[in-house]
Amino acid sequence: MSWFRKDRQPEVWEVADDQPLGDIGAAHKIRDICASAAAIAEAMAAAGGRKAEQKRAADTERYRAGIKRALEIAMQISDDSMRDISVSQIIRLCVKVDHLKTARVLLRALRSEKTRTELIEACPALIDQDAAN
Fold first, then answer.
1. If I label 96, which of 39, 44, 78, 120 is the partner at 20 to 30 A Cα–Cα?
2. CA gap 93, 99 in Å, rounded
3. What is the pTM of this model?
4. Are 81 and 112 in contact (CB under 8 A)?
5. How many H helices and E strands in the chain?
C-alpha cells in the first residue's frame, strides 16, 4: 500500500547547490553533512526489528554518500585552516562510524600540527598501531 509509505526527505548532501559555495559556505555545508550523517549512524546503531539488516545496509550507503560529498566539498576550500577544520569534522565522523582506515588517511592530509594533535587526543583510535610499535 503506497498510501502509508513515507517518502524520505533528501539528505543535505543530495540537495544540488545552484550557486558556487565560498570557503565559509562550504565549511557550513560540511558541518551540516557531518551532523546529518552522524545522526544516521546513531540511528543505525540503535536499529532493530524485522528488516534491520536491510535498513542497516541502506543507512550505510547513505552516510558513505555523505562522507564522499563532504570530501568533494572540502577539496574546493582554498583556506588551509578552514579546510583542516572541515576535514577534522569528517575524520570525527569516520571514527564514529568505525572507518578508521579512511580517518587515518585523512589525518595525514591535515596541514596543521595543532589540529592533528587535538584530533588524536580526542580520538585515540586514530593512532596507527603499526606506526606506534
1. 78
2. 9
3. 0.81
4. yes
5. 6, 0
User: Which of 19, 20, 23 has the alpha carbon at shortest distance from 84?
Assistant: 23
Task: Say how far apart CA 98 and CA 60 lie, in whole Å.
Answer: 11
Query: In this predicted model, what pLDDT tens digit does every residue of 58-89 receive, in sequence order?
Result: 888 888 888 999 999 999 999 999 999 999 99
Q: What angle do CA 119, 98, 116 make, to 5 degrees?
A: 15
SS3 annotation, 81-128: HHHHHHHHHHHHHHHHCCCHHHHHHHHHHCCCHHHHHHHHHHCHHHCC
CA dist 19 and 1 (Å) reads: 39
